[in-house]
Design goal:
Number of domains: 2
Largest sheet: none
Distance between the termini: 42 Å
Structural class: mainly alpha
CATH class of the largest domain: Mainly Alpha
Number of helices: 17
Order of helices and strands: HHHHHHHHHHHHHHHHH
CATH architecture of the largest domain: Up-down Bundle
Strand content: under 5%
CATH topology of the largest domain: Growth Hormone, Chain: A
Helix content: over 70%
Shape: globular
CATH superfamily of the largest domain: MFS general substrate transporter like domains
Radius of gyration: 22 Å
Amino acid sequence: MNNSNAVPVAMHSSLLPMILIGVLFFVFGFVTWLNGALIPFLKIACQLNEFQALLVTFVFYIAYFVMALPTSAVLTRFGYKQGMIIGLAVMAAGALLFIPAAFSATFELFLLALFVLGTGLTLLQTATNPYIVCIGPRESAAMRISLMGIVNKGACFVVPLLFSAWILTGMDAYSDSALALLTQAEKTAMLSELSARLVQPYLLMAVVLIGLMAFVYFSPLPELELDDPTDKNTDWRAVLKYPQVLLGTLTLFCYVGVEVIAGDTIGLFGQGLGFAHFGSLTSYTMAFMVLGYLLGIVLIPNWLSQQQALVASAVAGMLFTAGVLFSDADSFAVAERLLGWLGIPAVPDPVLYLALL
């Protein structure tokens, strides 16, 4: 890929590129936060303990770390648009790997499929993000970033509900007490049938991803020409002179950790508390996250400064963490007061605090 001093990408119409990028951001959220419902499902289907079940999250996100430099090399070699197509192809391969994993109920194969899926998503996200700035006037880039964030989190809200409706029906038959009454052969057959439920949704996901590959290939998205560093000898250690950069990096590291904990473990947490609809709990986390996005758009900077918002968020996070740790697991009182008037099923109070986190 030939990089040069970049100028904004000119497009006769930004509507179709906006729709395409929005669809891809929906895919980001859909694939990423499917893990929240997948973790408790695989815990049952593969008879895992909590540590093993959370390897789903570890393997998926370690792909971001391991594949960062290879992703950069791919984009340098093939360009951003072709990188998006390659990323979608790798994701489709990961989705197809779920089929033999589901038929064999082999947890290690599930982990391999998740790593491949995470690798493709890493490449796709890295290739797609620059287009947010370039598909329209740079002056309105912040608005487009916020809009894509809402689309992304909207997918995060939808996916656990779809997964629960499609996959997690009739789960009472797979409770520990129900399985304990079966012979080993009957138990193996039941769990194999449960695992095979994943075949259709992941086959459909692969088909959709392949369709998106064609959509991107024939789309009017131009290849991006981004700036090269002007000084090849810049010392990266110079950034250490700015403590706000280091503190900001640490803050983002902790924030992403909290976001993943809140989204990916809430289903497992609810399952441990005996909550029947544990597969949909990630939707609670994502709904509150979208609410936080909207409040940020409305309140900052007209009503709250960025500093005040950060302080308020940190204080609220500590209070909600205390609620998770110390509230009564048998109580629904706070959840009923907060959600009851909306007609939303109440959850145990510790689960609500985790969703609010």
